[in-house]
Design goal:
Elements: H1 3-37, H2 42-69, H3 78-110, H4 117-120, H5 124-142, H6 146-149, E1 150-151, E2 162-164, E3 169-171, H7 175-209, H8 211-216, H9 222-254, H10 261-285, H11 287-301, E4 307-312, E5 320-325
Antiparallel strand pairs: 1-3, 2-3, 4-5
């Protein structure tokens, strides 16, 4: 096997394996928390949904991409390509939309209570699930054209205005369809990223301007919210970095009729980095989640010595997990 192909295959394999593992750990940890607490905080619901969207992205894009890099062919027929590409487009869109939702939610949460926000803040938790449903319907509608352009690879040369994904082809047939699709997808992404940056900038402004006042807020609101705000800003910065690289490559792809497979692979790799890395930032910055992961990992490493979990509610951290070996 060629050295470049080997490096590319190993890179995709590591990225896919780490990403699937990290997002599954987040989802399993939140499942444990739901079982223990019987509910999730709104921010935890958003993070859980983000992990699910990122997991779906990795399964529908990086897994078949990795298999193709290692030489597997004819993975999907036309119907399979339509389903996989549609699911990938939706999960990619949900990733940016939910990250934006998380940023806006946290900005409203830590914003000073004014005449309007004092009425809005108590209602925020009730908006989470309807917002999820709205984002799903919005992106299912925007991505509805994807199945019509998707097909299994054909023998011979790749036609112009066709994205060769290796395991599937996305044939736009003409330049107009190619550009309209690119503008629609990029327009949606830039709109949500712009809102994400604005809300994150507002969070940083509040943290800087009101640092002394925030310390005076009672711990039940101050400490947890400030940590959550910093986590959100970190996730936004992470997303924007890879989003920028992804869209620079995407804009280049829109300017050429035939896209090199190397360029397409680079875009796939960088666009999937956020889905692979974000769960580890979520785990490391969320005390509740981190303690659950550590406790469950410890219980698996010591199978013959049961681990007892004691739950204590605290104003700063909703759930503490203390492990005692018997």
């Amino acid at each position: 096997m060629d050295l470049c192909v080997t490096i590319k295959g190993v890179s995709f394999l590591l990225q896919t394996g780490m990403g699937i593992l990290g997002n599954m750990v987040v989802l399993m940890a939140y499942t444990h928390i739901i079982y223990a607490e019987r509910k999730l905080l709104p921010v935890d619901m958003i993070l859980c949904h983000l992990a699910f969207a990122n997991l779906m992205l990795l399964l529908t894009r990086c897994v078949p991409q990795t298999m193709t890099v290692f030489g597997l062919r004819d993975l999907l027929n036309d119907a399979g390509c339509k389903v996989v590409i549609y699911a990938y487009r939706i999960s990619r869109a949900l990733s940016v939309c939910i990250t934006c939702m998380l940023s806006v939610f946290q900005a409203v949460t830590i914003a000073p209570a004014g005449p309007c926000l004092s009425k809005l803040k108590p209602m925020l938790p009730s908006f989470v699930i309807p917002t999820f449903a709205g984002l799903w319907f919005l992106n299912m509608a925007i991505c509805i054209a994807a199945p019509f352009f998707s097909m299994a690879p054909r023998n011979g040369t790749v036609p112009a205005f066709t994205l060769n994904l290796g395991f599937c082809h996305v044939d736009f047939r003409d330049n107009l369809s190619y550009v309209i699709n690119g503008v629609a997808v990029s327009g949606r992404d830039f709109a949500f990223v712009g809102l994400m940056l604005a809300s994150s900038g507002y969070i940083l402004f509040l943290l800087h301007r009101h640092s002394q006042q925030v310390r005076g807020i009672r711990r039940s609101q101050g400490g947890a919210e400030i940590r959550a705000a910093k986590t959100v800003v970190t996730l936004v910065v992470l997303y924007v970095v890879f989003f920028g690289i992804d869209n620079v490559i995407w804009i280049y792809m829109l300017t050429v009729a035939k896209v090199s497979p190397v360029v397409a692979d680079m875009r796939v790799f960088f666009s999937s980095c956020y889905a692979s890395l974000s769960p580890y930032f979520i785990i490391s910055s969320n005390k509740k989640l981190f303690l659950v992961v550590i406790a469950k990992s410890h219980s698996h490493f010591v199978p013959n010595r049961p681990v007892l979990f004691y739950f204590r509610f605290n104003v700063d951290l909703p759930l503490f997990l203390f492990c005692e070996q018997i």
